[in-house]
Amino acid sequence: MACETRIIRTSSKDPWWNLAVEEYLLERVKPDQCILYIWQNEHTVVIGRNQNPWRECRTDLLESEGGRLARRLSGGGAVYHDSGNLNYTFVTGRELFDTERHFNVILSAVRSLGIDAGKSGRNDLVAQGRKFSGNAFCIRKHGANQHGTILVSADLDNMTKYLQVSEEKMRSKGVKSVRARVVNLSELKPGLTVDDMVQALIEAFRKEYGSTADVEEKLRKDRESREALEELYCKYSSWAWRYGEAPDFDVTYETRFPWGGVEIGFMLRNAIVRKAIVYSDAMYAAWIESLAGIMEGMRFNAEELANRILGSAAEAPGDVRSMAEDLACWLRSKSF
User: At what angle do helices 302-312 and 318-334 cross, to 10 degrees?
Assistant: First the structure.
């Protein structure tokens, strides 16, 4: 299916603005359109849609040293962004969404620079066995996006300083530290710059999609789009979006599955779940987010909550049903 293409590169390094633009593009992408959006943040930790900021990031240290915390739309884990890291987003109509083509663009770009690279698992790209790119996804009714990072010359000391990664997660990846697991592409190709990577990425996108699109340095904005972007910026920069609630839970359970970590907090009244919050770095962000509402108002009973979770995934894709089965089995093992 032929598609209309756009290439947008923003000069802003404000994470809240860049994420606002990303959602703006997702909300307005045409059914036959594929957009490559290229952006960078400065001194920022970006957490997944359902993550606990205090658990994932040393937030006080980050902000005391002039950094910013941001929360994205998609699931997955926390990442550190600076001017040595390049971010990309593919935004397409729902029917055009094709992760293999998107991964092919990134891998073709990296290989064109003389670096042998490949895909590892569902979301990661690696070179010489170490990760240089992680990806996450957001699927909506009419559009979808895939976004990720490319480590070119990022400050890995800052990455390890600000990110708090559980020992359990490191064990699940078979490594002893975040630093040991990742690599800057400039380590493999000395002298490589972010601009070199940008040009390779643009050329690979043009080749993959037969695109002749020029690079747009600024979004075309009328009054309506300016207002929409300002509203989205207010959302992404707000305390409520970035930090959310941190209530004192009566009961908290935590574990890690092959598909991600889960922490569930319950506030109870007369053995009824008055409020629940679910934190996770799992990829199916919308379903994870829905779990709290599914459990609220239920009796605090492991079997009943497990059955409710299973029921919520009955018509979902196979991966989600499998996640629901894992959660149900785990809750039943708690015997409350």
Answer: 180
Q: For residue 144, which phi and psi values (nearest 5 degrees)?
A: -155, 155
Give the integer Cα–Cα distance in Å for 244 and 42.
23
pLDDT of residue 168: 54
* Distance in angstroms (rounded) separating the CA atoms of residues 190 and 209: 30
What pLDDT band is residue 23 in, cutting at 50, 70 and 90?
very high
Question: Residue 2 has which token pair?
Answer: 């032929």
Superfamily of domain 4-242: Bira Bifunctional Protein; Domain 2 (3.30.930.10)
Portion of the chain with pLDDT greater than 90, in percent: 86
Greater model confidence, 219 or 29: 29
Report the relative pairing of strands 260-269 and 251-257 from DSSP bridges: antiparallel
Decide if 47 contacts 70 (C-beta within 8 A). yes
Alpha carbon dihedral 101, 143, 240, 158, in 10-degree steps, equals: 10
pLDDT at 173 > cutoff 50:
no
Is 40 within 8 Å of 83 (Cβ atoms)? yes
Q: Which residue's entry shows tokens 């609630």?
A: 245
SS3 readout for 5-46: EEEEECCCCCHHHHHHHHHHHHHHCCCCEEEEEEECCCCEEE
Adjacent-strand bridge partners of 57: 163
Say if 4-242 and 251-334 have the same CATH topology.
no
249-267 burial string, b = 16+ CB within 10 Å, else e?
beeebeebbebbbbbbbbb
> What pLDDT is attached to residue 176?
44
Question: Residue ranges per domain, the chain?
Answer: 4-242, 251-334
What tens digit of pLDDT does each residue of 216-235 get?
988 776 777 889 999 999 99
In the predicted structure, residue 6 carries a pLDDT above the cut 80: yes
CATH, range 251-334: 3.30.390.50
Stronger pLDDT, 175 or 53, i.e. the higher one: 53
